[in-house]
Amino acid sequence: MANPPAQPVMRQRGSFNLVRCIAIILLALIVIVGLAILITWLAIKPKKLDYTIEDGSVHDFNLNYNHLNGSFDFLIRAHNPNGKLSMYYDSIEVSLAYGHQTIAFNTLEPFHQPHKNVTRLRTNLVARDISLSQGAARDMRLDKASGEVEFYVKLKARIRYKVGAIKLRHQTLKVSCSPLLHFSKYKTFERTYCDTDL
C-alpha cells in the first residue's frame, strides 16, 4: 500500500513560517517605534510645569449662620520651563474649597502657552449663599477671627503638548494650591507654591 502524499504537511509548515515572519516584523516595528519615541522624548527633556498663586484677596465676605457669601480673586502664575514643548490649554476649570467642601467654581479661557513662557491667569471665584456644614462654618469663623483662612484652589485642565508641528494627545493636568487669605490690612499675601499632577 502506497504512503499518503506529504503535501498537506508542507502547506502547514509554510503557513506557520508566514505567521512567524509576520509576528517578527510586527514586533520589530513596535520596538523601532518605541525607540523613536524614547529618543525623541529624551532629546526634548520635558520638565514639570510650575504653578504658583502670586496674589489673592477676598471681598464682600459674609458668613451668616452657616451661609457663606464672598468674592475671591486669585492671580495664578503658569510657567512652562520647557525649551521645545509648547502647551495648548483647551479647557480650564478652577474651583475653591474650604476643608472638603467646594464653595465656588469658574472656568478660564483656553490659551496657547509657548515654550519658556510665563502666563498669568486672573480668576474670580464667587460664593453665593453657599450652605456650609456646621463644623465647617464654626472652623471658618475661628480662622477668620485669627486673621487668616486657608483655602484650597484646584485647577483642572485638558492640555496638549506641541513639539514642532506635532500636537500630542490630550492629557489631564491637575494643580492643587492652598493659599492663606488675610483678613487683616497689616498682612500681605504670600506667594503660594502649588502641586501639579499630569
UniProtKB/TrEMBL annotation:
The chain crosses the membrane at residues 21-44. It is found in: Membrane. Coiled coil: none annotated. It is a single-pass membrane protein. Its main location: membrane. One of its GO terms (biological process) is defense response to other organism. GO terms for cellular component: plasma membrane. InterPro entries: LEA_2 (IPR004864), NDR1-like (IPR044839). Residues 76-177 form the Late embryogenesis abundant protein LEA-2 subgroup domain. Keywords: Membrane, Transmembrane, Transmembrane helix. It holds the Pfam family LEA_2. PANTHER family: HARPIN-INDUCED PROTEIN 1 CONTAINING PROTEIN, EXPRESSED (PTHR31234:SF39), LATE EMBRYOGENESIS ABUNDANT (LEA) HYDROXYPROLINE-RICH GLYCOPROTEIN FAMILY (PTHR31234). This is Late embryogenesis abundant protein LEA-2 subgroup domain-containing protein.
